């Protein structure tokens, strides 16, 4: 117990490359000589092999208002990844050196009611890798043992590297409950597109999708959407017509756009369920009486993923072969080409970009 | 089958007294010579003995904007009542002359998915007695057999006459789920006060109440509230403190007031449940991200009562002796004194007023 | 209201052909001169076009012990069908002459708590067509308006004719909840096979099937089962291995066989859900402690179909195009060839047989 | 991190008194010179102040067949307790020396799906204190940090010492769901009696209780049962009559007695819920068709308590002041008088016995 368990002959370097926010301005910096994280008694050190670029990383890259208020200068970014365990803290007992792993990016306090009831994702004190503390855009990444997720050998690295956003999609779909139901997905960014294939796999009987981007609507259709609606035009009446007149039974809100939210509620069938994942940038104005109350609607706020119920659901979905993620993970690039990755996301050329992390 | 079943020797009069809206202006008119309703093959005619005055009736009495848009001149008002069956339509088979009954005030279309799955209360085509068709402020009232509710002999007339609003309270409490949970009730008008005693009976471990009226707060405490909060002062921090720092697990929103709604969400514990019954008069502005999404809250829109799941729950609660409704039903008056009844409601002297209906 | 609504020029015959149990012995009798049912004020008369033969009909045909105790001599058999409405009772308002319809075969009392809360299928007083009263193996069939189900124009007659057993499968699958879960189906008779395609459509991530009949196992695989297990050999360890060591999360019990029930519970994952549809012919012996209690299992008894929640689910599944029923409905024959139909079911040559009913 | 955190000047003794099973025969031995547990990096050492005697401890004391097969000679018994933290392992971060605590008695493996989804109580590899490893009938007790439960300062020691069985009762009641429902409790041993007061607090509208012991039935009534039934006589018809003819909506099975289980299912209302906590000593014979399937019943196997959802529910119930545990905790004795404690349980003089543990 007194000596740290390390893989034999696997001596770790002193420094590593990492993508950091070093100045209060747009962009990230590829730093070559970053010190390795210090491994506490309950921590696991992971050699990162692949990391996904999240929309949140793009906010940090673009240095928007939210990022300026939230991100500490000097932080290593990134929170979606997979890799191999290379070192264990003294008290770690449930993970082994050599395990191929991903990890949950939310770190709960561990002592509150949320944390102790499978809801650490909504802990009041939650910390997020790459936002509140150093993240995974680096050769080595440290996470508490509790957050480590062993990756099934049948799951490819690129997929394991995007478990975090895929988990958002799975949590949204499974919380709303789509089995045997008509489903409307408003907004098909990365997670919205994932939600299409997840909703299909989870048994939705009909999937409608709205977005302003014809390319993404076409991709949604490829992933299993039965009908797509151009959100630049009025679409509520069409959505009702497509669902036998009453409207979809479930709305998965993935856009955060106030008008999409209002329109989605207007289309929703009485007694329907809504899962809200998209984050409106500001307060929104809504006719709560007609949208929610008279309709007897049920609305679920969605944040992160359940720890770890969602991860098991996700693993089963991936292993079932019923998810189609290949058209979503459009690019795998080297970490040093990160600027190209962010640009492809900005232009819409890429959907999800995964980076290979250098040794 | 060809002859109408009527109680022997119980010949019905040709006309009856009824409270009607006869002019597009405030007030109601006590009409003495109103024709009895025509009883269709599936209808039941009821001699009304007691009827409750609802907040909705007060809107119609005061002739506010909503009433002017919704109410047809000439209608008989009222939808909360109890009475005795006096005549059956030819195809009626599940009710007998002489039965003491109340009735659900929502009439569903009967053929839509909502109506055929126990959710007629949210039928798109729903009609409400006293609003869309003639109501129960009259000696005789006609309802479809399906809407009739036989009243247990152990339940007093005054209580049976307010099953409609009590059902709202029960539906709100049971949908949110309060058993073993800390509960916040924002707004204690008639239904909010009923919700206090229902939540207590349904197993809430702690009940907090907010309102602007000290008299109603005192009554809420008498009915079982553990703590009361004056909504004229900031109260969110206090509500959190009273619930061990994390906030109440359940909010029952009974005020329809935008600030109460926003404050209630702010106080709510992460992962909490909200049931919205109060109707905001206009669109409201809300920080959906912090109120619902990041918190992983679940929000239930509440309209009417489930038909008839809520009625069975209500009957069991009343029969259990665990409800305390006497302090809520403050006045029983004669129908001819209806103006006094409305005034006592306006001044706050009365909470719930029940009228005795003349023979 | 006083005259019966009949389709113009559609004069009904005085008698009709029907399949009846006329003697207390095996077999059914094709009777040519059966009087048409009398249509009460709330009844609908239907010209039957197609009717499915149920396993229950086979029991009645074979005149087993259960049938001898339950079936009244003289009854017209059959409860799965589709057809066209030809006549309405005086108080019928929600169905029209000419409508293509099927109907729920359970008739609830209409006044009990089960009936008034969407659970008429478990009404204590429930009557079943073709068992407790005349059924649909006849040119004309009478059902209460409440039981009538309008058939969507996109659904074929043969499929509409088997909504009853399909509804059993849908109710079983949806009550257990299979979305994103590993599912074990023990026994693939007609409803078990339907459950395979329903579970697949409803989002099961993995489907295991057990049976003693290799032909049915092969068909189960064709319908979407991922793995099949021969119930003549021990299979519990294999089922666990196929599900990552922990066992399936859901068991759908479709055999009624005591050993299948015991083995299924033994295979079940801790915390798993079981839906019991198969009827054990006698009391069974079971280790309740290990099967249910220590495992924290949840067990759902399944009877009939929810009225009408299951019907809406079923319609959506059929319209989604995600069900594969063609390999299950193996034969469509004329009613006069009913003996051949029963024989093909007995030999296993047929799975589901649908009869065309003569005009 | 390298030094163990100990309370200053609180030097621990080398040995302690403990109740041990030292020979394969009835009885326990009060051993004076037992070595203190070795504290691993994630363990917490607790000075036990109070410990409850469980029915399981009585089995071990009496050395029945189950005990002989399960219990290792030499073990320290006991698993219900409260005390103060006196020493922390090196990696412990969520507990402090001096905290007053109780602890969950089940130790999950920590890595399986059950353990990682709030269901460690049904982990396949679960270990139980006082059964599979040394327990709390000793001055010092060691538990993993994850199992520790901080006791609210308003909760008395005697109550905190019986959180384990109280948690069984709470888990049973909350899983079945009793709010606004009629509830039957079959068997009122210690946990059955606790279930009466918990069901009452959780909002049951009516509570019926069966047992063979008049004294316990009287106590059940004192704790809130509305009606009690002598299980030595036929009682099913009475239970139905007391619940308006349809039977109780919920059964909490606390006896493990085959006839009580069969009778309870016979009394249950169609669509009802059953929670099985009592452990039948052998296989039981049951008419699954009528008990569960035709009735559309839902049956929940109950094992332990949810970790830690149940603990939070329990804390809220205790703090609400709505539980009445005083008549159940009948005796508080010194640990050295343990034989007297077991005898009072055997004779029925005592219900729950709590021991004061020597310093």
Model description:
The structure is a homotetramer of 359-residue chains. By secondary structure, chain A is of the alpha/beta class. Chain A folds into two domains: 15-162 and 325-356, Alpha-Beta Complex (Quinone Oxidoreductase, Chain A, domain 1); 169-301, Rossmann fold (3-Layer(aba) Sandwich). The first copy, chain A, is 27% helix and 25% strand. Chain A has helices spanning 55-62, 65-70, 157-160, 163-176, 190-201, 214-222, 236-242, 258-267, 288-293, 309-320, 338-347; strands at residues 5-6, 15-20, 29-35, 43-52, 80-88, 100-103, 106-107, 127-128, 140-144, 148-150, 182-186, 206-211, 227-230, 250-253, 273-276, 284-286, 298-301, 329-334, 352-356. In chain A, strands 1, 4, 5, 6, 9, 10, 18 and 19 form an eight-stranded mixed β-sheet that branches. In chain A, strands 13-12-11-14-15-17 form a six-stranded parallel β-sheet, sandwiched between helices. In chain A, strands 2-3 form a two-stranded antiparallel ribbon. In chain A, helix 8 links the parallel strand 14 and strand 15. The longest helix of chain A is centred in the middle third of the chain and has 14 residues, at 163-176. The radius of gyration of chain A is 21 Å and the shape is globular. Residues 1-9 of chain A have low confidence and may be disordered. Chain B binds chain C through residues 1, 40-42, 89-91, 93-94, 110-111, 113, 116-118, 306-309, 311-312, and chain C through 1, 40-42, 89-91, 93-94, 110-111, 113, 116-118, 306-309, 311-312.
């Amino acid at each position: 117990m007194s000596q740290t368990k390390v893989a034999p002959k696997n001596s770790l370097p002193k420094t590593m490359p990492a993508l950091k926010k070093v100045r209060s301005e747009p962009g990230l910096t590829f730093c070559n000589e970053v010190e390795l994280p210090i491994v506490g008694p309950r921590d696991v050190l992971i050699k990162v092999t692949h990391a996904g670029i999240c929309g949140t990383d793009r906010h940090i890259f673009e240095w928007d208002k939210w990022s300026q208020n939230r991100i500490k200068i000097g932080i290593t970014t990134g929170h979606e990844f997979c890799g191999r365990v290379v070192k264990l803290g003294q008290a770690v007992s449930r993970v082994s050196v050599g395990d191929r792993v991903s990890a949950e990016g939310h770190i709960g306090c561990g002592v509150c009611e949320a944390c102790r009831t499978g809801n650490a994702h909504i802990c009041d004190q939650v910390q997020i890798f790459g936002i509140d503390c150093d993240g995974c855009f680096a050769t080595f990444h440290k996470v508490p043992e509790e957050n480590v997720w062993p990756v099934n050998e049948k799951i490819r690295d690129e997929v394991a590297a995007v478990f975090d956003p895929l988990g958002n999609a799975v949590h949204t779909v499974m919380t709303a409950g789509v089995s045997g139901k008509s489903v409307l997905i408003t907004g098909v960014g990365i997670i919205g597109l994932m939600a299409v294939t997840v909703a299909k796999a989870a048994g939705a009987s009909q999937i409608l999708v709205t977005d302003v981007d014809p390319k993404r609507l076409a991709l949604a259709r490829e992933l299993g959407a039965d009908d797509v609606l151009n959100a630049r035009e009025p679409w509520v009446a069409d959505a009702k017509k497509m669902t036998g007149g009453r409207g979809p039974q479930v709305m998965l809100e993935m856009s955060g756009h106030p008008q999409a939210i209002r329109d989605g509620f207007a289309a929703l069938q009485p007694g329907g369920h809504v899962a809200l994942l998209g984050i409106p940038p500001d307060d929104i104005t809504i006719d709560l009486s007609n949208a929610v109350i008279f309709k007897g609607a049920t609305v679920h706020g969605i944040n992160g993923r359940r720890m770890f119920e969602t991860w098991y659901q996700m693993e089963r979905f991936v292993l079932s072969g019923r998810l189609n993620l290949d058209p979503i993970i459009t690019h795998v690039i080297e970490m040093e080409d990160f600027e190209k990755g962010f640009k492809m996301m900005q232009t819409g050329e890429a959907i999800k970009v995964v980076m290979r992390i250098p040794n």
